[in-house]
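Before relying on records like the one below, remember that each one covers exactly one chain. Contacts with other chains, cofactors or solvent are not represented anywhere in the record.
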Amino acid sequence: MLAVRLWLGSKIFGPVGIVGVRVAPKRMIKWNCEEPELEALRYAAANTSIPIPRLYRAHSYRGHLALEMEFFPGCDILQVCWRKYSQEQKAAIVDEVSGYIAQLRQLEPSHLERISSTDGGPCRDIRIGSVRRFGPFDDSLAFHQCVRGGVPEEHAQKFFGDEVMRVHRREYNIRFTHGDLSAQNILVRGGKVVAIIDWECAGWYPEYWEYTKAHYNSVYLPEFYEMLRQKIERYDDELKAERILWDRMDQPLDEVRA
């Protein structure tokens, strides 16, 4: 039955990029999903007022998880339409986004130091690896060793330098994190945020992770990120350290696997 719905949807409504197919005017099925995204959508819907796609059902399709969720017609991703808005509209959008980040950061983890997916299992993050899940970790120190591709602290100083290791030795509070809050994952219409999408990287991470991950693709829209930096807590040391790692060992799980 699901295969028939997907076939009909592709003929009537067409695909949604490369991630799925519309099966109704305001409904889509996103395929090749993983459990962390399902967990995060349910948790954010139950614990925040952030506009997110309503989740209707989880399917199994060709051995993978597929999520049937709300589709938002007539919207643009912020990356595409940012430049057409007035400064007042841009400021209003940034205010909305910073407010949603504040909501996420107010949520309390079940384990104060544990880095994990929403429900406590392995994480999924494109910054760490393109395919594999990782963790969970008992604390930030263990997480940071994974970020370094498994290089232990006694050897990491020489390879990564002081700026990285100063950050990796610090203790951090754990905060609920969207994990990919960049301009291509913010849907807008008429100068207002309609939805925050793509929650597959969400989970419990060190408090700076939302800030640094939001900059992971900041080359596309520097003005937005500069305005956002003025509204949320900044982690400039951590961003500097991450940029070194993006250059030397981005997606470390892929490096290890290779």
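The chain has two domains: 2-70, 76-257.
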